[in-house]
Amino acid sequence: MAPATAKLVSLGFLLLAAASSTPLAAATTLTLHNLCPYPVWPLVTPNTGFPSISDNTGRLDGGGRGLVSFRFPPSFWAGRVVARTGCRSGGSACETGASPPATVVQLVVHAEGQDLAAYSVSLVDGFNVPAVVSPQAVGGGQCPALGCAAELNAECPRAQRVVGARGEVVACRGPAGYFKERCPLTRTTPADVEPVPQRCFGPGELKVVFCQSAMVNAAAGVAGEATGHIRTVVADN
């Protein structure tokens, strides 16, 4: 992974370095669902020192048919998820996702010695596939859906395009402003954070959807909420 991603992980998640490794009462499930019109090969990579939870050889067929779940360890774990595309059998020789530019979902579970989850979608190293992460069956706290449901390859600035073997744009290198304007609930620079609060306790599942159909962000004037607070609504799958 490029240095920019390493810095982002350090900034956004490794501030949780004091997290306990003591096993907790409940583990959390990671679910990956592919709604794209093409197959993807998920790459689930633990951060250094954490165990693998996937052999990364599976293919998720498109159109909602591809669905897989993994169990996180019952103790502190951190890592990332990328959707590879255009791969050969077993996820080898992929057209995108094996290296930047790629959409990176960053995940932390069982942090701070308690059942706390942290998550984000990073476009620091570019974009290849729309991805949205949302906690399910949460135990409490602030658990917004985050990520990018937009297809950013088609309108990617010409100089930033990655063109595949069949002549179509398969990934986009940037710039950060292009990404942020279209997908404000992502991280597009090493210092970037989402404009929504997040402190999510006890999710039974972290669900990552590739090519989510819609993500609507609206300023809320709901009683009891501060003006300008962004509510996130993700369409049902």
Would you write up a description of this structure?
It is a single chain. By secondary structure, the chain is mostly beta strands. It is built from 2 helices and 15 strands. It has helices at residues 3-12, 176-182, and strands at 29-34, 41-46, 66-71, 77-84, 104-111, 116-122, 131-136, 140-142, 146-148, 161-163, 169-172, 199-201, 205-210, 215-219, 230-234. The chain starts with a helix and ends with a strand.
Q: What letter string, H or E per element, gives the SSE order? A: HEEEEEEEEEEEHEEEE
The order of strands across the largest sheet is 2-4-5-6-12-8
Radius of gyration: 17 Å
> What average pLDDT do the residues reach?
83
How would you characterize the largest beta sheet?
A: 6 strands, antiparallel
What is the terminal separation in angstroms? Answer: 30 Å
Q: Helicity level, as a percent range?
A: under 10%
Q: What form results from the Cα inertia axes?
A: globular
Percentage of residues in strands: 25-35%
The poorly predicted ranges are 3-25, 216-237
- Helix count equals 2
DSSP E strands, number = 15
How is this structure best summarized?
The protein is built from two helices and 15 strands.
